[in-house]
Amino acid sequence: MQVKVFVTPRKGILDPQGRTVEHALASLGFAGVSDVKIGRYITLNIEAKTPEEARASASKMCEQLLANPNIEDFRFEIEGAA
Amino acid sequence: MKWGVIRFPGSLDDLDAMYGLRDVMGQDVTALWHKDESLRGAECVVLPGGFSYGDHLRCGAIARFSPIMKSVAKFAADGGLVIGICNGFQILTEAHLLPGALTRNRTLSFICERVHLRVENAKTPFTCTMREGDVLALPIKHGEGCYVAPDKEILQMEERGQVILRYVDAMGEATDAANPNGSMRSIAGVANERFNVFGLMPHPEHAVEAALFGADGRKIFESIIAFQSVPEHRGQLRAGQPMPPSGGLVR
């Protein structure tokens, strides 16, 4: 099964990259753009018998390594689940 | 005193740390390879600066899994002294040996300059030869040095005295202009609750000789030596007792 993991800066944590891109978008003339956040997108294949098993495993991976809970939030999607 | 300096793939400042401690300060220093598990009898373990594992994923996130880090965690749990400088600080936060995290500088640029730091707590093994309010001049060189932690946790750390160093101006004031990377509350260095693990972004090992960036970095290493020379202090840390407010430390 394929897991798609989305890691984003936690709310309230300064995201200087997001802010810089927001300013750049404004200078291109895109008005009304706010809350630009830049994160990380990770895909991985996982051997699991059930989507639940894959989900449990992916959740642990995110908590222990893929995201840093001090500064980042994560969510993931499982694909290819029969 | 016996020191161990860990070398991770991508460590850069291990040689400067060894030079400062051994050649300048006459200490007994051993290089520790990240794949080894033995700390070779070190009384203080140094995690040096650099770019361990190319900063992949997040700074320090991979080095935390090096075999030697298990021994470092055990050593710290037994009250052993650990100091992480720059990337070493990042590794210690990723290994959950220190609270918080280091993120991109607010300027998004790599900063290499000399900064002023105020000693906020002088009753720790890392600052015990200094006084609260002392201002040190040390170099910084990092791209990810912005210290962040949940608000609640930071307040608790402040109350417990875990904030050890803060970025200040030459007059000792923690102004926004003197905060090089956007760290919350201008935090430059923190200790764990037990005060035996210390992490800081500035580089004391690059400032051990008057001719090169000044010698203020020595004060941190001299504090560790002074602390370690008193057996009761070591017993205190081993027993997991936090430093009493009076310190009872070498002055």
How much helix, percentage-wise, in residues of chain B?
A: 10-25%
First-to-last CA distance of chain A = 9 Å
CATH structural architecture of chain A: 2-Layer Sandwich
Major beta sheet, strand line-up of chain A: 2-1-3
Helical content of chain A (DSSP H or I, runs of 4+):
25-40%
The number of helices of chain A is 2
- Mean pLDDT score of chain A: 92
**How many structural domains in the coordinates of chain A?**
1
Residues in β-strands, percent of chain A? 25-35%
User: Biggest β-sheet of chain A: count, sense, barrel?
Assistant: 3 strands, antiparallel
Question: Quick gist of this model?
Answer:
The complex is a heterodimer of chains A (82) and B (251). Chain A has helices at residues 16-27, 51-66; strands spanning 2-9, 40-45, 72-79.
Overall description:
The complex is a heterodimer of chains A (82) and B (251). Helix content of chain A is 34%, strand content 27%. With 82 residues, chain A is α+β, with helices and mostly antiparallel strands. Chain A has a single domain, classed as Mth169, Chain: A, CATH 3.30.1280.10. By secondary structure, chain B is of the alpha/beta class. A nine-stranded mixed sheet of chain B has the order 2-1-3-4-11-10-9-6-7, with helices on both faces. In chain B, strands 5-8 form a two-stranded antiparallel sheet. In chain B, helix 2 links the parallel strand 3 and strand 4. Chain B is globular and about 45 Å long. Chain B starts with a strand and ends in a 13-residue tail after the last helix. Classes of the chains: A alpha+beta (82), B alpha/beta (251).
Relevant terms:
heterodimer; A: about 80 residues; alpha+beta; Mth169, Chain: A; three-stranded antiparallel beta sheet; 2 helices; about 35% helix; B: about 250 residues; alpha/beta; Rossmann fold; nine-stranded mixed beta sheet; two-stranded antiparallel sheet; globular
